[in-house]
Design brief:
This is Pyrroline-5-carboxylate reductase. 56% of the residues lie in helices and 14% in strands. The chain is α/β, with parallel strands linked by helices and 272 residues long. An eight-stranded mixed β-sheet has the order 3-2-1-4-5-6-7-8, with helices on both faces. Bound molecules: 1,4-dihydronicotinamide adenine dinucleotide and (2S)-3,4-dihydro-2H-pyrrole-2-carboxylic acid (A1CAB).
Length: 272
């Protein structure tokens, strides 16, 4: 299968996917079309990636077999209503909107349409993303395979029940922002101790990448933590400060709040 891919909304996530698809040489720029309400944004995408761009969303619908909806959840209902009459049941609609359920998409465009819901993260831009995947079971096996292959070029794809999407949105969708904050804070700590800013950021980044790689290699983080921690040493002094400041709780709470917001967004869009 070699389908034409469109994006409605050409913001951060659309660019992350376009960049990955083009750089990964899975799609030619001429197979990709994008629409947005901002002409400057479209000019930028056309110039940088060579994709086809339109101010009209319906043009993307006409030119695509797979249509990624990459607008904010609050804009989804308007966009879906706008394109509903032009969609064919053979086309595949892929939504990445946080908190926007498949049933709401079907309510607007019809339940005869092929609908995929994904929750990606910004790391797809460097082809190290994760994507949670579910669909409304209307895709043919080969179509599902194709969409997953497309997503696999830039991410690890997890088949998950839609019920888990709020939690996945918190951990995987919002997660990079939490990690960026941690990196920034570690760099600040280094600067406070006298390290030059650029050195502090590089050290913090390498520590994070290396630590994640060790966990990926198969060891549990708790076991690894104990290997770093000497009796009466430096690490336990730092860990004790983290416990005193309830760092674990703060991170758990961050995910809970992000998940709660995803549920709130669903309630909000269901009333639209
Ligand atoms: N940014 C992230 O890391 C992640 C975002 N998401 C989801 O991806 C979706 C897109 O998010 P971002 O790319 O971050 O947002 P963004 O704000 O960067 O991009 C949205 C784009 O939609 C355009 N737009 C607004 N109204 C439009 C309309 N009526 N027709 C066509 N285009 C229109 C905007 O001009 C903007 O360029 C959201 O639903 C979000 O929940 C999901 C996972 C991660
Ligand atoms: O902040 C947001 O709502 C979006 C969804 C996940 C990441 N960014």
């Amino acid at each position: 299968m070699n389908l034409r891919v469109g994006f409605i909304g050409g913001g951060n996530m659309a660019e992350a996917f376009i960049s990955a698809f083009v750089d990964g040489e899975l799609l030619l720029p001429s197979q990709i079309s994008v629409s947005d309400v901002l002409k400057e944004r479209l000019d930028y995408l056309k110039e940088k990636y060579g994709v086809k761009t339109y101010l009209c969303n319906l043009q993307v619908v006409t030119e695509s077999d797979v249509i990624f909806l990459a607008v904010k959840p609050q804009v989804m209902t308007t966009v879906l209503k706008e394109v509903a009459g032009s969609l064919y049941p053979s086309q595949i609609v892929v939504s990445m909107a946080a908190g926007y359920p498949i049933r709401k998409i079907e309510e607007i465009i019809g339940d005869d349409k092929k609908v995929v819901r994904i929750m990606p993260n910004i790391l797809v831009k460097i082809r190290k993303g994760v994507v949670a995947y579910c669909d409304n079971k209307r895709l043919l096996d080969e179509e599902r395979k194709y969409v997953k292959e497309l997503l696999s070029t830039c991410s690890e794809v997890f088949d998950l029940d839609e019920k888990l999407f709020d939690a996945v949105t918190a951990l995987a969708g919002s997660g990079p922002a939490f990690v960026f904050l941690i990196l920034e804070a570690l760099s600040d700590g280094g600067v406070k101790l006298g390290l030059p800013r650029d050195v502090a950021l590089k050290l913090a980044t390498q520590v994070l990448i290396g630590s994640a790689e060790m966990v990926r290699a198969g060891e549990h983080p708790e076991v690894l933590k104990d290997k770093v921690t000497s009796p009466a040493g430096t690490t336990i002094a730092g860990l004790s400060a983290l416990e005193e400041n309830r760092t674990r709780f703060a991170l758990i709470k961050a995910l809970e709040e992000a998940c709660k917001r995803s549920v709130e967004i669903t309630k909000l869009v269901e009333g639209m």
